[in-house]
Amino acid sequence: MQPVVLWVPSGRRLLSGLLGMNLVLLGAALVGSQAFNPSGLRNQEPEAFLLLVMGLSLAWLLWHLLWARRQPGAPPHTDHHAGGVAVTVVLMVLAAFSVLLHVFRLGYFAMMVGCKPAAKILSAFFEGPFVILQVTTPASIKPYTVHMEIELEREEAGVFGNLSFDIELRVGERDPVPVWAYTMCLVFRKGVEVLYPFNMEYYLMAGCLLYVMWKNVGRHTAPHAPAAPHRLTLRAIRRSGVLLGPLAGGATLLLGVALFVLYQVWVGHRKQREAAFLLFYGFHLVLVPLMVLASLGGSLVHVLERRGRGKGGGEGGRNPARSLDVLLLVGAALGQLSLSYFSLVAALAVGPQGMMGNLDLAYSLLCLLELVLQNVFIIDGLNGPHHGPHHGPHHAAGPAHCQRATKKSRKAVVELLEPDKAATAGETEGGKKKPWTRRAKQEICAFLILSNIMLWVIPAFGAHPQFENGLGKKFFGFTAWFILVNLGQPLGVFYRMHSVGALIEILITA
Known about the structure:
One of its GO terms (cellular component) is plasma membrane. It holds the Pfam family Otopetrin. By secondary structure, the chain is mostly helical. 74% of the residues lie in helices and 1% in strands. It contains 18 helices and 2 strands. The protein has helices spanning 10-36, 45-66, 85-111, 118-136, 143-161, 167-171, 179-216, 228-238, 244-266, 273-309, 320-350, 354-383, 399-417, 419-422, 436-460, 465-468, 471-476, 478-509; strands at residues 428-429, 432-433. The protein has a two-stranded antiparallel ribbon. The protein is globular, with a radius of gyration of 25 Å. The chain starts with 9 loop residues before the first helix and ends with a helix.
């Protein structure tokens, strides 16, 4: 069914888009000024702007929650494109870690009240309630809120990028600092360092979901598409016997965590530094080729499915979430792709130098191949047909059609709740056995999900050998290479997390 505009004129979307664009440009100018001339902004303008944006967002959220949504004839509050079960659970987990981060920030700023500007201290008090209120608000956020949220994430990165943990200033004061206060300050500092990657991922994910809601304002989907199929498919997956993918991915995750801990311990000692780099490159040179083979196998499975099904069978109607998923995957992959290409250019210019140079070059080439093949597999999976109770093309939904679809949906729910029929739900579909291609796709998705989680953990929590080692630093110089890595690594981290979400959706809809 094609979407039908029911409310909110397009002029409001234009106004909100212009407002958001100006907020982003102003925030980028403030963050850039703070980065290039830190002493030029004497009145904490970036933090003040952040407080203003959060204050406006909080005021609108409270107005919407307490008054606007209770009015008769209010617009619908449920966006199925942005409110899937997996997405909601991940967002809630990230929000919980973000709230915990703000608790540590409050403790840290409370102990540094004499050293930190008032704007930073106030932002720590505002941001925790902002996250809580935003997560608990129904999924009907207005257009301009997404721009404020994305701007908030950009500002947050700037604030934390300039957050100097200056305990030594307190130690150097005339009055001696108690041991317990010094210890607590270290605990708060470490808590902020550990939890900050989750906070960054929360803001990125919230911004993406709010963008989908903004694009869906005024669209009306077919009423015969309830939320039940996702829950039923999850139950079918648990009974479908998918085993090899989770086992291989779980082993990868456990081994990766152990090696990551060893890396963090060894990299701080000069004598064991080279061994730490060998651990990093060795793990990636084993895992990335396996992911290449898995992505290639998944793409071949998609080809076989299309040949067996013929043309058609895709998801009907325009879905902004699908377009955004593809755009984010391709855009976020540019970070690691650019680093790999710069490393390749450096290797061609100066030639591999020593074992570490060869390892860095091999790592860059494998990352290029893995990113391209995984993107092909994910995009094919997102744009392909989705199996489930409502598989097939959409038709115009009249009253009689909606009534028949509702009866069929209730009948499917009742049948799957019966023990004898629920046990075979994952093995049959319409009286036929589930094709082996769908089982293979589920195994591949399970392995890639856990592998991408591991590849997210490693850079998100501080393993960056490209800063200290590699051909790029020798060829481009430390300053230029430092800037390139600082721009590329955050995009790579976001790519891994977003690819996990896309792979979960492919796994569920398989």
